[in-house]
Amino acid sequence: MKRYESLAEEIAQSIRTGVLKPGDRLPSVRQASASRGVSPSTVFEAYYLLEARSLIRARDRSGYYVIAGTKVLPPEPELPSHPSDESAPVDVSELVFEVLESIKTRDVVPLGSAFPSPLLFPLPRLAKSMAASVQDMDPWSTVDDLTPGNAALRRQIALRYLADGMHVHPDDIVITNGALDALNLCLQAVTRPGDSVVIESPAFYAALQALERFGLNAIEVPTHPRDGVDLDALARALTRHKPKACWMMTNFQNPLGSTMPDEKKQALVNLLAAHEVPLIEDDVYGELYFGSKRPAPAKAFDTQGLVMHCSSFSKCLAPGYRIGWAVPGRYAKDVARLKLTTTLSASAPAQAALADYLAKGGYDKHLRQLRHALSVQQSAMMQAVVRHFPRGTKSTRPGGGYFLWIELPGNVDTLEIHRQALAQGISVAPGPMFSAKRGFRNCLRINYGHAWTAKTEEALVTLGRLIAANGKMNLMDKEP
Amino acid sequence: MKRYESLAEEIAQSIRTGVLKPGDRLPSVRQASASRGVSPSTVFEAYYLLEARSLIRARDRSGYYVIAGTKVLPPEPELPSHPSDESAPVDVSELVFEVLESIKTRDVVPLGSAFPSPLLFPLPRLAKSMAASVQDMDPWSTVDDLTPGNAALRRQIALRYLADGMHVHPDDIVITNGALDALNLCLQAVTRPGDSVVIESPAFYAALQALERFGLNAIEVPTHPRDGVDLDALARALTRHKPKACWMMTNFQNPLGSTMPDEKKQALVNLLAAHEVPLIEDDVYGELYFGSKRPAPAKAFDTQGLVMHCSSFSKCLAPGYRIGWAVPGRYAKDVARLKLTTTLSASAPAQAALADYLAKGGYDKHLRQLRHALSVQQSAMMQAVVRHFPRGTKSTRPGGGYFLWIELPGNVDTLEIHRQALAQGISVAPGPMFSAKRGFRNCLRINYGHAWTAKTEEALVTLGRLIAANGKMNLMDKEP
Fold this sequence. Notes:
Two copies of one chain form a homodimer. Chain A has 480 residues and is of the alpha/beta class.
């Protein structure tokens, strides 16, 4: 922990224990610097951090004041979703494309984005690894690195699993063009048009689009915002619909942020094994935990080779490189062959650059910084939701990742809010993007993966007004 | 033209005009160097080139001799293929994977390879472009370069079309993970499972695999080894089967090497427009012409937006980078959306590196060298086929690319030869890889995209023996 972080933590502790009370003025930067024996910039950084966490607030020219005795967080949504238990074809793509299109403009506030800020990644370090590895590139590596992919990179990925206590052999890994490619290949390997596939409710829209593209039916299973899929409901769906696969995010699910506890993951793997149904596990956010330890993927409990585990470097190291992978268990050969016939291989220079970066070390340090930044930004976003959204708004409190799932009170239409917000330069991801039947109309997914700025704050103010107007609510009618 | 090339051309001219006759001894390197006023290494390189073209041959310690007054070429196959005119499901993948697997071993003589030698490409120059472009990379480019792809690269591609007289707007281009991705996306955009698709006979096996994967039926149309698809047969197939697409290679078709003349391409485009059937055009070899001018793609004749033109840099500039593109005409939006939902985007660093390389110039010079190398190697391969394969062997004479299509006499089984050759460290591509119903059992595709070495010559000798043994032919029973 850096000096400014421990100073901030000390002050936060004083606020939590009531030594400092709401409205109290903090010592000036100069006073604090003198009394604590630290540099003014350390004090400034500590205050900045506390402000980002909405514990203190600067008032023009008069210094910093405590604004909350304990963090005021929005209440959490408490109930799992309750989708229909029928299977159904999917028709959501048009809406998803409309929203995706909107985030490509740089001056839009990207609350609807699927990506964290590219400024959070060590692109200059990666550039060095790229330059070094292409300069030394053996021309024949263009053949050697064909699917299943660069051997050094597969070894580095296997080593990371080993560090987390999982035994994955490099030969079990198929390198892909990002996790999306891995997930699509896994789905193709185990389904045929007309089959049914279990997904979460709400689900990552790419799963919905994949089902739509391959003519598969979706079985949406109730999912709790804290600990994920309802296993009893899943058991009934398995018996009733005989699905050919489940597609799930076990850690920091997109959009809910839910994470299955270990014992639940174990039970999930056992249940699916009993039905001989493969689990396509999307674990792209697993490294972005705010706690003390990486949550295990379901793959860690797989003894039957039925878990088709997918991940990538796109969300935690190298956006744009498009390097992901699958560990498809007993379907490894099928997935590799599908990869060969669809896109042949991932880009050789990108594979070599990542292998070089991982071998040289520094990834864990980068991840620690990234997690810290995301956790601070999550806190700032939650506080802003409390400040600016109508009373009754609920928000998830995910232990990682970079999305909040917001349940709005009353009869709010987030599709309408999405359009109105976009007209004012703000993107959001409306709830219906995440459901086969366009449910979750009163929900929003909000991205907090970008640095908190005055523009973000303004965007939240605007959003709050749009929501209140849409739901005919009075913003003033809030808890103090 | 370099000094040694013009010297070689002078000598070749003397051989063609009969000034030098078969069996004549050439001046020694020392004599020629003195009499022509060039360095010994220039003479040596000229002789090496003439030897590669099989015009002269070195005999141990006694110098170089003319071996042919005019080139002895294998006879050409004269008839188009005659596939069944029924449509049929496809089942060829297992065989294709078996052959593809075999070329991954470096010490196999890669006559069955789908790729030219990676040594033919300017990888160090590309490495410089890669290093420069990742160092300068704007972090936000990871968002900007999302599908349809890097704007600078799309502009460079459009400029190359313009230089060939084609007007393609950068916005009409979708960047993909190589041409294979482009072709697959185009096919998905216009077909549904159960539809029929017209392909050439023989066809590139990736087309067969794509049809198999998507549950499409193949209509194989007779194709002439010199000028491509039989348009009368195509017209009948269009009327009878109402296919949803045609997938064709109009230039240096793989495996035949056939190229449709311009007027035939125009007629093809007109015919398909009359039936409102899109043409998925695979033009990956178009830049590898040996003549004076790039053959136009069918896209050049498209006024209806029905030609879905696909190409890449994998065969002519940057193997392993996996950067290709589609110009899908009226289906551009559908193809871009499919790209977004399957693999999101091509690798951003690879896109930026190619944009930088193309902007800096040098691509045309590289292409001239590449074409020259391939044309020399084609000549050497044809001569070796004449020398070592049984009488009655026919070979195509493609005007570009790096494949010969060999028709073997008698009752030869190339699947058997493939297995026997592989056991001796030689890969070949047996004819049945190129047909939905495993036809062309007496045919081989031979790759001449690798530098000619003593090992290649030995491999041809071995192959000739295997073929003769398989067909119970006498190798000695040949023209002198």
